[in-house]
């Protein structure tokens, strides 16, 4: 879920407790909900009047919310909510003059721009000049080239032709050609994507390249610091105006409950430490992949076969996976519990029972299996270990069905399999470089390919690491959460509120991109 949507949901959960302890809580929450609503990033779809803007919005939303047709159907700006963002459907370029003025006026207020053009529009000077006017203004722009012909060879030719046109216009306008490599350009059959989404046709969805578009589009959306900064600003304001004030009020009214406070503190420190570990893992993966970008670039520059490129990507994925696996194993087995223990000791508390720094024998075997999964341990091996733990009546595994354990085992699937699948998508999308007109065209395409490969390798590696961390965190939290449930059942209303508010505060802190 989008982080801003998470804040809205958490505020709704917080309202009943907050209103019992803060006289202005209802007004404060309403004000924050309105601010979050208004501060949504506005993504404007821009382009010719029948390029497929409304159809793309319908594909994103998953239902027909925008009018689409071959003649101008939009004469005002329509707003559609999607994943915590606002999609703006506007009259197109080359629409009636009054309609076009509406688009240009809205363009000045838009945060991000998705420029949609048909494959026949790539030769239209007014369309290409519009693109470069936005680029010269340093506007964030994502280009969707809407094609109709599904022949892979034709798609590749369309890509090469459009790349050539971008470079040609860049030369004419004196625009830095190297900067074009940072502009996401995705080919997609928008009409097929919309139909697939509305009719839930997975094969057609993949054929339309909607999955490739979504992967790149989401990466593009979250890279802008303004969203991250806004998230930080919202949390800081919520902390000052609501979280701290309600917490202080509850503490004044609640009867001190030593055991419950200790358990809440244990949960807080465990959650906080694993959140920091996840952030550190993200930085580690990015740093290691950055060091290996030349390897990926070289494989692409050589123009090798699919197998050659896949082998290079797999080698990069394996090398990074091995380094991160070794680092993560040390963090989880030696450092994390020590840091949690030190933080608890500083608060005059102890580690939860059974959470010694070395971990239990079974817990370490579980961790070994999860970490080993990053190097190729099969799902069946992990499931066997989980079932063994259930037979030993390990807390949390007792009574679980084999089907459930199978789902857990899926989380330890080899990261290289994930990387291979993601890399296959990238190879299918860009295809081999054939019959490209100029060396500059190849350079630009390789740059876009490199960004795509880097992004997908990161996503695959990070997903695997996140699954391992989440699994270990769950194991650490399980006995503490069980203890919390036992104690909570014996508490009075105000003490329950204090404990629930502490949990909500942690949930607010955990919201992130």
TrEMBL record:
SUPFAM superfamilies: P-loop containing nucleoside triphosphate hydrolases
Compartmental location: Membrane
Bilayer-spanning residue ranges: none
Residues in G domain copies: 42-146
Protein name stated in the entry: GTPase Der
InterPro entries from the UniProt entry: GTP-bd (IPR006073), Mitofusin_fam (IPR027094), P-loop_NTPase (IPR027417)
Keyword terms of this UniProt record: GTP-binding, Hydrolase, Membrane, Nucleotide-binding
Domain of life: Bacteria
Xref: Pfam families: MMR_HSR1 (PF01926)
PANTHER family assigned: SARCALUMENIN (PTHR10465:SF0), TRANSMEMBRANE GTPASE FZO1 (PTHR10465)
GTP-binding listed as a keyword: yes
Primary location recorded for the protein, binned into one broad class: membrane
Presence of the UniProt keyword Amino-acid biosynthesis in the record: no
């Amino acid at each position: 879920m989008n982080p801003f949507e998470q804040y809205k949901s958490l505020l709704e959960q917080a309202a009943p407790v907050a209103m019992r302890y803060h006289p202005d809580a209802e007004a404060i929450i309403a004000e924050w909900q309105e601010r979050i609503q208004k501060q949504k990033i506005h993504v404007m779809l821009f382009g010719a009047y029948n390029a497929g803007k409304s159809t793309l919005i319908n594909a994103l939303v998953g239902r027909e919310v925008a009018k689409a047709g071959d003649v101008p159907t939009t004469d005002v700006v329509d707003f559609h909510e999607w994943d915590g963002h606002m999609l703006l459907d506007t009259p197109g370029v080359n629409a009636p003059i009054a309609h076009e003025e509406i688009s240009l006026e809205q363009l000045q207020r838009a945060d991000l721009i998705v420029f949609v053009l048909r494959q026949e529009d790539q030769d239209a000077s007014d369309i290409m000049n519009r693109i470069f006017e936005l680029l010269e203004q340093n506007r964030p722009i994502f280009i969707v080239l809407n094609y109709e012909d599904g022949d892979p060879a034709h798609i590749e030719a369309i890509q090469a032709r459009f790349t050539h046109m971008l470079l040609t216009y860049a030369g004419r306008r004196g625009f830095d050609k190297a900067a074009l490599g940072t502009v996401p350009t995705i080919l997609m059959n928008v009409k097929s994507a919309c139909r697939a989404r509305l009719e839930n046709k997975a094969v057609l969805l993949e054929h339309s390249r909607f999955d490739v578009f979504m992967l790149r589009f989401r990466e593009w959306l979250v890279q802008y610091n303004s969203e991250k900064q806004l998230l930080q600003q919202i949390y800081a304001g919520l902390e000052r105006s609501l979280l701290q004030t309600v917490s202080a009020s509850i503490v004044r009214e609640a009867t001190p409950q030593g055991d419950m406070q200790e358990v809440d503190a244990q949960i807080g420190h465990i959650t906080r430490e694993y959140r920091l570990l996840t952030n550190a893992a993200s930085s580690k993966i990015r740093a290691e992949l950055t060091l290996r970008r030349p390897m990926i670039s070289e494989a692409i520059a050589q123009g090798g076969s699919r197998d050659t490129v896949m082998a290079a990507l797999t080698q990069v994925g394996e090398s990074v996976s091995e380094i991160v696996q070794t680092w993560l194993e040390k963090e989880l087995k030696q450092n994390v519990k020590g840091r949690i223990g030190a933080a608890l000791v500083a608060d005059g508390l102890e580690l939860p029972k059974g959470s010694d720094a070395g971990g239990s024998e079974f817990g370490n075997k579980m961790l070994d299996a999860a970490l080993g999964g990053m190097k190729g341990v099969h799902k069946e091996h992990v499931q066997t270990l989980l079932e063994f733990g259930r037979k030993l009546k390990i807390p949390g595994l007792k009574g679980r069905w084999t089907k459930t354990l199978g789902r857990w085992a899926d989380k330890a699937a080899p990261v290289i399999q994930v990387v291979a699948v993601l890399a296959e998508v990238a190879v299918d999308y860009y295809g081999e470089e054939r019959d490209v007109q100029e060396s500059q065209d190849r350079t630009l395409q390789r740059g876009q390919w490199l960004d795509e490969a880097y992004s997908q390798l990161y996503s695959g590696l990070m997903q695997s690491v996140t699954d391992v961390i989440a699994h270990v965190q769950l194991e650490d939290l399980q006995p503490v959460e069980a203890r919390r449930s036992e104690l909570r059942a014996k508490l009075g209303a105000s003490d329950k509120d204090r404990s629930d508010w502490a949990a909500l505060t942690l949930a607010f802190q955990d919201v992130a991109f």
